[in-house]
Each structure stands twice: as structure tokens, then as C-alpha cells.
Amino acid sequence: MAKSVTNLSDVAAAAGVSKSTVSRVLNNKLGNGFAVSQEVRQRIIEIASKLRYRPNLMARGLTNQRTRMISVLGGSHALSDMGNIYQTVINSITNVLDNAPGGFDVTVDMSQHIADVSELPAWKIDGVIILARSTRQTIDEITKSNAPYVVINGPCDSSGVSVMPDDIGGTQLAVKHLVELGHTKIAYAGAPSKHLAGHSSLNDRHDTYVKELIAAGLAPIKGHQQPFTSPADFLKSAVYEQKVTAVITYGHMGALNIMQAAHSLGIAIPRELSLIAFCDEYAANIMSPSLTFIDLGSSQMGQAAAEMLLNKIENPEHGKFRNVKIQEKLVFRDTTARPLN
Questions:
Q1: Domain segments of the chain as ranges
Q2: Are 199 and 154 in contact (CB under 8 A)?
């Protein structure tokens, strides 16, 4: 039976060098009387990559000396939509770690990974920050190595801690704002079907919308449980057929698409239709008219996660760290107003 895991000896044999040479090259421990040619060094690196050799450098780095390197996993989420929260989150993380005593270098993994592949880098790191979620293999490796890690906007195992926005509280603020303005027909535009399947925000925002409307004596608008697809079709059903005067959208891209469709259909925002979305200030600032939004606190999430990770690195004996919930807030701008009648 073929071996499932490549070890140092396999790389050394394929490269035609000793195990100590492979170890020194992959750990970048050259000098002090040890040197190899560029050709040999490149051959070792290429063979290690081809054989998918993954030394447990994380555990070794944590038991020996600090590397002052942090790996942020799930960076591909930052590429999904223009102005999404993870771009602000990453900026906030790097700002905290750059300014920490001694400073930390931050690497961000922007790759897409299949379910059974580790996302951890093949170099020593002092800790991990995960955006939304990572592969099961990654979590298993982190847990086995006892490495400190924090998850932002996603679940974690008992060995880690999470920083989450309060989507239930944020949705309550959105519904309350529109009801207090006098709206009685409030629609909900959910996430597109391509969004992260199973993410807690999908149910938290939708279910709270339904619950809060019923508590206010109002009926949820037909279509609220459907994925958001065509903004024009959504508006025709909501505004023309069901006489909706306000819409809560899952995210800022949905709000932007509704603004564009409303303009094409001759529906004035906010005079004829109020609009509110979940996003952060950066995304809201690039829209016109200025968007009323539920601020997810993405900058605070990044800051809290980085500070928690630094605390776990400096105080590993501290015991269990608590999960953090970031309170969302309403930012009232130009896309919500009282209904015409």
C-alpha cells in the first residue's frame, strides 16, 4: 500500500541529498558554515512541493522560538464582492499586528481549497486567524498542534475562540427603524444562492425579520424565504403587486442591485421605497444615494480577533478564552424615509 503522507526521507531521496540538507533548506537555516547551491535549493523546494510534503512546522515553531508570523486563512472571501466586510477585517487585523510590540508579519491565504486539504502554510507561524470557516483538515491540524487561533464571523471548536457580529440584534434594529418610520409592508431580499451555504447569518437575519414583523402585528412579504436573484423581478413583485414601501436586504450588493433596478423602473428611493442593508461603512460610502445600513462592525471584529490572538500567544496558560459578540448598529442616512401614505 502506498504511503499517504510524505516524510523528510522521501524528499531527501528524491532530491539526492541528506535529510539534514532538506531540513535546513525548507526551514531557511542556511549560513553558519552550511551552504547549498541555488540549483540544489530550488530542486529541494520543487520536489517537496510536488510530493506535497507538509512538515509540522507550526508545532515545531510553537515549541521552539517565536516566528512573529500570523497566517490569515479564508482570504478568498475578501474577493467575493466589491467592498465586502472581509476587506475591512483584514485591514484591521494587519493594523493591530503591525503595531503590536515587536510587530508581526501577516500572510493572507487567498486560495480556494477543496474539503480534504489543509490551508496551513508550510512555514512556522505563531497563530492563525480564520475568516468565516476553513477545511476540516485545517482545524484538525491546528487543534493537534495546540496552536492559538481565532475565527471571525464563523464557528470554532472548543480549542479556539470566535468573533461574531450580532445579526439577530442588527435585524431587530432594521425592522424597528422602518416600523417607527411608519412602514407596514416591509420586504426582505435574502442572499444569492452562491452565498456561503449554512452560514449563521442566513437564518439569523431572515428568521429575525419574520419574528419581528409578526411581533409588530405585520405580515412578512411573500418571497422572503427565496434566494435573491433578479432585482427587477423582486421589485415588480414587492412594489407593484404587494405594495411594499420598504426593503431590508441581506447585503450591500443586493442593495446596490435594487437601487439600479429601481432607477430603471422609475421607483424613487427613498420617496417611494425605503432601503436598508447589512454592510460596513466603506461599502455604504461608495453608494449614491447614501445608504442607510446596519453596521456589522467589521473593523471592530478584525481588531478584537487580532487582540485576542495576541493575548492567546502571550498567555497560553490563561485557559479558555471567551467568544466575543460584536454589537451591530443602525446608521441612518438617505435611503430610508417615511412612506408617502
A1: 1-55, 167-296
A2: yes
Closest residue by Cα to residue 53 from 1, 12, 106, 114: 12
pLDDT for 252-296, tens place per residue?
Answer: 999 999 999 999 999 999 999 999 999 988 878 878 889 999 999
**Which residues does 179 contact at the CB level (< 8 Å), separation at least 6?**
186, 216, 218
* CA–CA distance, 124 with 16 (Å, rounded to integer): 25
Sheet holding 329-331, edge to edge: 186-189, 246-249, 274-279, 292-295, 329-331
Mention the CATH class of domain 1-55: mainly alpha
Q: Buried b vs exposed e over 87-99: b needs ≥16 C-beta within 10 Å? A: bbbbebbbebbee
Residue 295's beta-bridge partner residues? 279, 329
The predicted model scores a pTM of 0.80
321 exposed, middle or buried (CB, 10 Å; 0-12, 13-18, 19+)?
A: middle
Q: Which residues of the chain have pLDDT under 70?
A: 1-5, 27-34, 54-65, 196, 319
With beta carbons less than 8 A apart as the criterion, state whether 235 and 267 touch: yes
User: What are 223's three cell numbers?
Assistant: 418571497
Q: What is the CATH number of domain 167-296?
A: 3.40.50.2300
